[in-house]
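pinned: reference chain
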Amino acid sequence: MNLLSWRVFSMALLLAIAVAMPAVVKAQDAQPMNQIKLGSSSTSLSSGSTLSSDATTTSTLDGDQGSGGIADASTTGPEAAAFDGTYVWVATQFSDSITRIRVKDGLVSGTFAVGKRPVALLYAASYLWVANLQSNNVMKITPSTGALVATYAAGDGPGALAYDGRNIWVANRNSNNVTKLSTTGSNLGTFAVGKRPMGVAYFANSVWVTNNFSNSVTRLSTAGALQGTYAVGRAPFGIAGAGDSIWVTNFFGQTLTRLRAADGFSLGTFKVGDGAAGIVFDGTNLWVVLHGNDSIARVSPTTGTIINTYATGNGPFSVAFDGARIWVPNSGSDSVSMAAAN
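pinned: its structure tokens
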């Protein structure tokens, strides 16, 4: 190819790239979400801000989640969320309380004291369940009143909850095991998993646990028998089932790992962004919280590609779905971000 032909070819290639790039950028632009400020007795909705152009990849897990990061003492630390059919509940770990938000209008309608450092919530068997990381227990709450029904002992550092249709499973971060509780609080067993179990989910007749310090996922039967251990990415965090697959967020890997639910075989790893943390499946798409990017990504469960990204508040870790909307607590903003799922 002579010099003139090479220049013509190069110019054509650059023009092709320039035409293609706007579509890519547009697909990745972070759209705003509504923001609900906690601690208010009335609805407080405002448009969310867009992502900063200089977002970095230096995020760390908070002090009890893994790497020793220091939490911002000026916030209450909204950490987890769960939907009970009427309210979205938010665990504010640094105020040792839970707050409920009425989904129909965003009204903040009550804050209730719980144990020390609540970091996980679950609605199951008509009750709200709260895992208190530093109290080493799980509380059972009546959602309509916020009243405490009972408190049950768990392992060391309970930090994630799941329901298998009959029993509650509690992942204990510091004792490297999971506790199985009946809905009346009976301890039905404690079962070893990997190091720092961070997430737990029930899917395909099994209990799946992300092991944050082991870079693996443990699969248990509902009787607690080990069914398999599968390698995933760096610092696995959240976990959710969709279709025939288990999806795992890798916090420091900035990726999603897809495992075949039938046998744990890896079906691929997909780039999503910094600090991949909480994850939920809305029946159509996956939603992946990106803690380091202050955003949440909507991801295709078919291809693993990002469809859209949405700007949240500061420091999100988890996500809840109410059947129509996505809710994201912002640990550094004392707020919850909300947007329609579709």
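why pinned: Residues 1-28, 40-73 have pLDDT under 50 and may be disordered. The chain is about 10% helix and 50% strand.
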